[in-house]
Amino acid sequence: MASASAINIDLSGATYCVLSGASQGIGRAIAVELSKHLGPKSLMLVLARNKEELAKTADLCKSDNVNIVFESMDLSKASAADMLSVIQSSLKGYNVTDFATSVIFHNVGSLGNLSVETERMENVEEMRHYYDLNVFNVISLNTQFLKVFEEVEDRVVIVNVTSLCAIKPMSGMASYCSGKAAREMYFKVLAEEKKHIRVLNYSPGPVETSMIDYVLAETVNANLREVFTSFRSQGALLKPEITAKKCLKVLLQGKFSPGEHVDYFDDE
Ligand SMILES: NC(=O)c1ccc[n+]([C@@H]2O[C@H](COP(=O)([O-])OP(=O)(O)OC[C@H]3O[C@@H](n4cnc5c(N)ncnc54)[C@H](OP(=O)(O)O)[C@@H]3O)[C@@H](O)[C@H]2O)c1
Fold first, then answer.
1. CA 6 from centroid of its chain's CA atoms
2. What does the mean pLDDT of the chain come to?
3. From the CB of 75, is ligand 1 less than 6 Å away?
4. Which residue's alpha carbon is nearest to atom 36 within ligand 1?
5. Which GO terms describe its cellular component (predicted)?
6. Is 187 exposed, middle or buried (0-12, 13-18, 19+ CB in 10 A)?
7. What are 1-4's contacts with CB under 8 Å, separation 24+?
8. pLDDT tens for each residue of 155-191
9. Does the C-beta of 210 come closer than 6 Å to ligand 1?
10. pLDDT for 26-81, tens place per residue?
11. pLDDT band, very low/low/confident/very high, at 246 (cuts 50, 70, 90)
12. Counts of helices then strands in the chain (DSSP H, E)
């Protein structure tokens, strides 16, 4: 991890946060951990499809300092206008200059169709749908966020929840690996261009969430099944709360270079 020019990220003032994929798993855990660090008059917008589970996340984040808004949204289908509107609506009654820091966590993610072998991938419609959610609309949501906070761009912090799979191929996960690689590189390019925006690519390690169940239920790749079966049997999967704590620690310490890929295990 780069450290010489580390500048802490301060969330102890009024902070505005958007978090995608916050209805369960790592996203919910990051929301809860994040809410503990936010200063008075902070505002959080949490997004996913499942409204009941989002309400539970909002409940878990309750604090005197934070107002939590949750909105059900299918991020694979939402238009740029929908995403702009959901951010603007959450800010009703506020001015962007009210916030000392504005943070967006791009945590939403899916695995795609694991039942087709890599050499047999041909359903472009399905691949497009995968990329819509995991790459294109992540970029578009980020753009809407930057438009809203253009006036105070130097207060913006971006966290992309990435994966080891963005930098290391994993058998049986061609959509996931290629999507994560593309998404991470977009944030690296943005960080290269906008040095005053803090951008972190955080890789959470293997975490016990519904994604793991999905891999074991759906994959046709024996190597992938073996990897995750042994992670589980050896108790090597992290709890979402543990990696969420680490994510916030890395973020707050600010010891990362623009767009750096920082993994849970980097200094464990
Ligand atoms: N688990 C791991 O081992 C692991 C490892 C490395 C990286 N990651 C990354 O960490 C992030 C979170 O993963 P997780 O393990 O916590 O997965 P998860 O439990 O499956 O959670 C995924 C989240 O994304 C939301 N989501 C999925 N499709 C959506 C859609 N169409 N529109 C809006 N929201 C949608 C889900 O909410 P709804 O279903 O309510 O929409 C849920 O809140 C992902 O980016 C993943 O790639 C996970």
1. 22
2. 97
3. yes
4. 21
5. cytoplasm
6. buried
7. 1/250, 1/255, 1/256, 1/260, 1/262, 1/266, 1/267, 2/255, 2/256, 2/257, 2/260, 3/255
8. 999 999 999 999 999 999 999 999 999 999 999 999 9
9. yes
10. 999 999 999 999 999 999 999 999 999 999 999 999 999 999 999 999 999 999 99
11. very high
12. 9, 7
Q: What is the pLDDT of residues 212-240, one digit of tens each?
A: 999 999 999 999 999 999 999 999 999 99
CA of 244 to the centre of ligand 1 (A): 14
Residues paired with residue 63 on neighbouring β-strands, in sequence order: 66
Measure 177 CA to ligand 1 centroid, in angstroms: 15
Do the beta carbons of residue 42 and residue 15 sit within 8 Å?
yes
Our answer on whether the CB atom of 110 is closer than 6 Å to any ligand 1 atom is yes
Q: Give me the pLDDT at residue 181, please.
A: 99
- Tokens standing for 17? 């946060």
Tokens 């003032």 correspond to: 13
What mean pLDDT is predicted for residues 111-130? 98
- Contact by Cβ (8 Å): 218, 3: no
Domains contained in the chain, CATH given: 15-207+240-262 (3.40.50.720)
Q: What angle do CA 139, 159, 9 make, to 5 degrees?
A: 140
Write the single-letter amino acid at 55: A
Rg, C-alpha atoms of the chain: 18
- Whole-number pLDDT of residue 7: 84
97 Cα–ligand 1 center, Å: 31
